[in-house]
Amino acid sequence: MRMIFPSESPELDDLGLAEAYAYPRELWLRANMVTSADGAAYVDKRSAGLSSAGDMRLFGVLRALADVVLVGAGTARSEDYKPARRRAALAPLREGRPATATIALVSRALDLDLTAPLFTEAPPDARTIVITCAASPAGPRAEVARVADVIVAGEESVGLREALAVLAGRGLGRVLCEGGPHLLGQVAADGLLNELSMTLSPTLAGPGAGRIIAGPAFPAASMTLRQVLAEDSFLFCRYVTEN
Known about the structure:
Elements: E1 2-5, H1 14-20, E2 28-36, H2 53-65, E3 68-72, H3 73-78, E4 102-106, H4 117-120, E5 129-132, H5 138-145, E6 149-152, H6 160-169, E7 174-177, H7 181-189, E8 195-201, E9 224-231, E10 234-240
Parallel strand pairs: 2-7, 2-8, 3-4, 3-7, 4-5, 5-6
Antiparallel strand pairs: 1-9, 8-10, 9-10
Helix pairs in contact: 1-2
C-alpha cells in the first residue's frame, strides 16, 4: 500500500500507515467504512465481500490507534464481532494504554447475546461497553451490566453526544466508528463526525444493497479530501469535516 495523494510514497509498512492515519487530536471521531464502486455497503449482507487483505491490514492499524471502537449492535451481530485482537507488530502503538481498544456497542433494545465472545472474552482492561438510553428495558439492562460496562445516555433514544462525553471522561476520546449505516447516519446527523476513512472497492455489487449511511435525512455537508492510498485497485480515502 502506498500514498498517491497529497504526495507519493514508497510502500508503507504498518508503522508508516499508523503515521499516515495518526489522530490529529485526543478528541476525534473517525468512521471507517468500505463501499463498492457503485455505492453498496455490503455484498451478501456482509462487508467482507468488499474487503481485501490491504483493507483488513488498515482495519487493524486503525483499531490499534483508537481508544474505543463504536459500533451498532446490529452490525456487531451480523459481522460476528469479537474483542479487538492483540497484534504484536502493533504493540508500540498501544504504549501506555490497554493492549487492545475497547468495543462500545450502541443498543436501545438491548437484544444482545450475552454469551457471545464479545462479552465473555473481553479482557478486564478493555471490558466491552454497552451504550443505551433511559427508555431501554430495565431487566435486560441489569443483565447486560453483569457482563459489560453500561452507559445510559439520552432518554427515549441514545444520545451520542452525551455518550461520547462519558467515553472521553474515561480517557476514550479517540473514537473509531465502524458503523453500521444507521449509526453512521446518526453520527453524521448529530454533527459528530470529524473524519471518514473510506475504502473504495473495485466491485460492482449491483442493485439491492444499502449504502454506508442510512436513517433520517440531514443537510448535505462538504468534506475535504486529505489523503489517498492505493493497493491492488483499491483506494483508501481519508476525508475530514469542519467539526
